[in-house]
Every structure is written in C-alpha cells, then in structure tokens.
Amino acid sequence: MSVPQNPPCDIIVALDLPAKEEAMHLLDRMHSRPRRVKVGLQLFTRYGPSIVEAFANRGHKVFLDLKLHDIPNTVAHAVESLSHWPIELLTIHAAGSSGMIEAACEARDRTHPELKIIAVTLLTSISDKSMEKIGMKGDPESAAMRLAALALKGGADGIVCSALEVEAMRGEFGPDPILVVPGIRPAGSEKGDQKRVMTPAEAARAGSSHLVIGRPIYEASDPLKAYDEIAVEIAGSYQ
C-alpha cells in the first residue's frame, strides 16, 4: 500500500490510552508512522508535561488537547508554563471569552511564538438536545460559527470543529485558519460517544487541516494497516 507523504489534510493519532507504555507500544506497532499525535487529559493528568517530551523525542509533533478554560490571567500563565515543552498545537476553549483568548495568544507570542493556539468551539459529543440543556441558543453549527469568529478575532490560529461545520467555516473564514477535526469515523466503524461525525474522505474534501482519529486506529487488530488505509482514503478524496 502506497501511503501519501505530506497530504493537504493529515492524521493526528489520538493517544487516548490509560498508560504511557500502551501508547508507546502502539507507536512501536505503527513503526512511528504518525507525524502527529494527540495528548489529551487522560495521559497528561497522569504523567504531566514530560509525556509531551517523550513523544517529541520519538519524532512526533504533539497536539496537546487540554481545552484550557479559566480566567484570562490563569490561562495566560498556563500557556507560559507549557511554552518550555515541544508542543506544536495547544487547545483552549473558545467559550472562555475574547479576553481569555487574547490573553492566551499574547502569552504565546511572548514565550513560544511557534506554538499554534487552537480554540475548541463545541465538543462533537454535543447534540441539538444538549444545546438546550446547557443553555446555549440555536443549533450546534451556528453556535460553533459564533465561537469560531470570536476565537479567530482574538488571535487564535485555528479552531476545533465538527466535520459537519468545516465547509461552512472555510466559506466564512477562508483558507488560512487551521481546522482540527475530531469525530472522524471510517465507514462501518462505531460512532461511540460522538454525535456529529464524518468519514475521513468527506472531512478532508470539505477542507479540514487535521483529522483527529483514535479508536478506529488503536482498537484495530492491525493499527498500522488501519492508519495507512485512512491515509490512502484521504489522498483519494482529492482526486
């Protein structure tokens, strides 16, 4: 199988595993193929920032998905603290207000200018019914668009959004913002707790920058084969 190199839309493998050893074993099985990996709350709260260094030392670019959401000063200091570690992409939460977003970006500019700040709009587990329960007006897509506009105006380099929103985001904000898209499920795979999902080809064709994919890869009997098949599917979406 010929795996494309440096496609316009690439895969971030979500290492949503309980232990560092399991994550390292997965990457060994994949011959360190992924260019980018995601470190989320599960690994970060167990191992701290050193887990970022462990993956970076293997040659992977790290997407640190912490969804920072606090008062502006606290988030700014958190960004400053993380600036010492080899992180490519860092998430904050767009719902934290324009002041928080601006504070995070200003802290980044002072301490780690290469770091990309990515603002989460709405979790892909949120449905129309959930919107009403948490007191947000409108449907998930319109809310995500409002939050994306707030984040990009505040200096964020990109956003995390559902694949269902990517085409509209590109139409509204153009080609420059980084669009990181979770909730990706290859045809025939289980949706799990995700509500707003697409296949890799559909999401790539819509204009995604990065697709965050976890369970369809790490739960596969052959993770490397699963990764390569998705990579080929993405490449085929541009033909």
How does this structure look, described?
By secondary structure, this protein is an alpha/beta fold. Helix content is 44%, strand content 16%. It contains 11 helices and 8 strands. It has an 8-stranded parallel beta barrel with strand order 1-2-3-4-5-6-7-8, surrounded by 6 helices. The model has no long low-confidence stretch (mean pLDDT 90).
Sum this structure up briefly.
The chain has helices at 20-29, 41-47, 50-56, 72-82, 98-111, 128-133, 140-153, 163-173, 200-206, 215-218, 223-236; strands at residues 10-14, 36-39, 61-68, 89-93, 116-120, 158-160, 178-181, 210-213. With 239 residues, the protein is α/β, with parallel strands linked by helices.
Supply the key terms.
alpha/beta, 44% helix, 8 strands, 239 residues
Number of β-strand runs? 8
Shape assignment: globular
Radius of gyration: 17 Å
What percent of residues adopt helix (DSSP H or I)?
A: 40-55%
Uncertain parts: none
Write down the secondary-structure element order: EHEHHEHEHEHHEHEHEHH
Summing up helix and strand content along with how strands pair, one would put the structural category as alpha/beta
Number of helices: 11
Mean pLDDT: 90
Please give the alpha-carbon distance between the first and last residues.
17 Å
Going across the major beta sheet, what is the strand order?
A: 1-2-3-4-5-6-7-8
Range of strand content? 15-25%
**Sheet having the most strands:** 8 strands, parallel, barrel
